[in-house]
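call fold(seq) -> tokens
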Amino acid sequence: MRVTQNMISQQFLYNLTNLNTNMINEETQVSTGKSLILPSDNPLGVNQDMMANNLISQSNIFSSTISNGLSWMQTTNTAMTEISQSLGSIQSDLLAALNTTNQTTESRQALSTTVQQYAQQIYTLLNTQQGDQYIFGGTTNTVPPVIASTLSEAGYTMTSLSVGLSGSIDYQVAQGIEININVSAYSIMLSPLPSGTSTTATLQYTLQQIIGDIASGTESSMQGDLQNIEAAMGNMTNLTTGLGAGIQRMTALQTQTSQYTTNLTNEKGVIQDANMAQVITQFNTDQIAYQAALKMGSQILLPSLVSYLP
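ret:
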């Protein structure tokens, strides 16, 4: 096959255009620091980059969910610690009422009033809010679990169970992993105590009985109250332990999710970021080749417009 001058010119211009295109891409990589400018630059790399973006986005959502859940659980833990302390104070006052001889009506009434104040504090803590949500309110946490009542010795009572007071709030913190983040007011105040003088005794019932029994000085009733308050304290310990285990698990997941996101970000950087040393070296090489091609073309081609190119 005879190689014509036209064929030589076309091949020369083709190679020159490729060199020029490569230099433009390399200049763009140097200025942006990215190796993936167009999908056609590296289809496999672009696909990997998109997958990394999706995984990072999903990981960030889980990380936000975990942070919100931890905040809720830590607020709950603080309130439950204060409730446990109030129960301990009530137990101490009940023991004082049982073990102090020759009590007057006034001294019994003073102890009863003190217990009433601790009971009111417990009820107030059960209405603790995070934002506009009641942390002990179960699934319907926009409704206060505790309301004022003139029928109770403590001046408060629990909201009807019909509003979801006993509901469990579960957060999905990873693929296929859900963790319960709440403790309901029902499980603290209205669930039957694990032991005590009656299988139907609850903390709400017990608090009301203690206030009245101390005021009246009925020793046999106070003995039963003491068993019930101890059972209630044991129930609080179990609930707090379960919450603490959940906090530990959430904290571990938070660390794992953060590390996973960091690894994905690093991987994305490897895929997307340009190797500056390599790109600059290649740009210099292509630039030299481009200048050499122009010089060679001016010598082997017949006089044409290329002769006037710099």
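The chain has two domains: 53-267, 275-310.
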